[in-house]
Amino acid sequence: MKRTDIKELFSDPKTYLNDSVTVCGWVRTWRDSKGISFIELNDGTCLKNLQLVAEKTIVDENALKPALAVGTALEVSGIFVPSERNGYEMSLRQVTVLGECPQDYPLQKKHHTLEFLRTIPHLRPRTRFFEAVLAVRSELSFAIHSYFHSHGYKYVHTPIITGSDCEGAGEMFRVTTQPWNAKEKNESEYFANDFFGAKAGLTVSGQLEGEIAAMGLGRIYTFGPTFRAEHSNTTRHAAEFWQIEPEVCFCDLHDIIEIAEDFIKYIIRAVMKACPEELAFFNERTEKGLLEKLEKVVASDFVKLKYTDAVEILKKSGKDFKYPVEWGCDLQTEHERYLTEEHFKKPVFVTDYPADIKSFYMKQNPDGKTVAATDLLVPGIGEIIGCSEREADLGKLKDAMAKRNMPLESYLEYLDTRKFGSVPHSGFGMGFERILMYITGVQNIRDTLLYPRTVGSL
Ligand code: 4AD
Ligand code: MG
What we know:
With 458 residues, the chain is an alpha+beta fold. 34% of the residues lie in helices and 23% in strands.
């Protein structure tokens, strides 16, 4: 099918002006006025629709009236002409109906609520909102690869099926081919007879394998799906989400924080450049002031704040928090929101958390109480990055694992990285949907994924 993208027509109109062009797409709306039909066609290449103007004779000749409805797939040819209202439009000459769309097509109205659209995920990409979300999602992915590629990182693909729970939070989905009524007498027999001969699950993070790769390649990143059987039914948690995880050798906490900040500013700038229409749309639709927020974020320095100082700020805030703040407590959403939204009003790296509330692999600070770790908190979302320098000392790492009752025998290969030529190294994990929410102002993680997976909903 020889056709021109609508995006191409609008970005290079002079080439096509007053010429005959062919376009394929779906009817978004159509109306009649004084015998003339106005049809808005969208082909998914850009947010803009192409307006088709059809004289009555064309409508009659092509028997359009009975066939034409919202959602119909068309191949149309006509002359690309200037238009007062739309900049450009097509004066319609010929129409082929590629796929009819009966009246029970659910997207008849112009605006549907996001809640309603969640009930028809298979049709959401036909709406302006999802077209914009998926366009930004795609450009953001590209920008992420582009940042790491241009900074000398190797892209590694870590396993999705794994035996190790990186975060130790017991949130792994199990992978099994055992029948539901397996007859084994105990757990170890059950797993021994399973496909892998061992307990297996879906990865919660590619970090441990990422560290293995970095220990030879120096600088790597992963970008893939991760899975968590978390029961948190919030607007920021999905059971299947994508994570970006760089791992850098010869790099301490201070260095990795600089990398993370530089990386975030780079990808935001890249999306602002690649998706001006989509961001202008979100600026109207999801978050007034979004563009101004993004401009400010790329121009400003992020706050770096020690956990101990964060606790002091929260205590002095005079706020009546649901969860009282004491040194040693995990920061709750309400605390994170206060720090980024009310106190600093910008992204904040909270550093040096108490060791007891963080993962085993984090570098233990000389004070014996805290670890060289940081979470990046941003207004409106909370945590978007979990980051740390890794414990490079074999003995200290083993102690931290023993303290958490972790089975050392399952991590022997990981421990070898500390035994054979251990080096200071650091890394972070950024939730892809979380940064996408931050950049688009989309409020619910369910509206950033083609098919969101959350507790109780597949
Ligand atoms: O803070 P987390 O648990 O850190 C790790 O997994 C480390 N292994 C990363 C590393 O150092 N390589 O998760 C990292 C990020 C969070 O900051 C958050 O943005 C996102 O992953 N995240 C989720 N996003 C959506 N739904 C969930 N259920 C998420 N859980 C974590
Ligand atoms: Mg975290």
